[in-house]
Amino acid sequence: MFYHGSVQKNLLELxxxxxxxxxxxxxxxxxxxxxxxxxxxxxxxxxxxxxxxGDDREDLLTRDCGGSIYVLTREKFRPVPGGNxxxxxxxxxxxxxxxxxxxxxxxxxxxxxxxxLYFVSAPTVDEIQAADKAGSLIGSDFLxxxxxxxSENKILRTLLLKHGSRLKVKVETPSHVAPQI
Length: 181
What we know:
There is one protein chain. By secondary structure, the chain is of the alpha+beta class. It has one domain. A hairpin with a 2-residue loop joins strand 3 and strand 4. The radius of gyration is 16 Å and the shape is globular.
């Protein structure tokens, strides 16, 4: 199975944007892309997913309207060239999802699925991505300095509770797909 996160809910068909539709074999990675952040990247470190969001925390909280994680078959996807196959695959074809999980809050979904969130500047996201592609990120002083700060999860949990946001999930199966029993 592959997973695609989107701010758009209730889609019966997913279409490539700019020629590609991205998905991940890791549900947590798809959760990061529910937020519709201007810039974001993920790193798997010791079995955990660290997400670096290049967006203002308060702005993202204000406009967080959730999204859906779509469950897709693997058959039409291939690894992103130069990418990490544990994180990202793509297809150039439109895909009908097998089912989806709709979330009221993207941030609550990320936290619930164990994603460690860091809000950084957009240039820092670019720097993380470039260093990761060059193979010089893991163990670097740069990454150590970014991860030296505590993740935003505790602050975000408090803010979400204060605003009355809870994790509500609605599982949807498109009518053209027979439920698997």
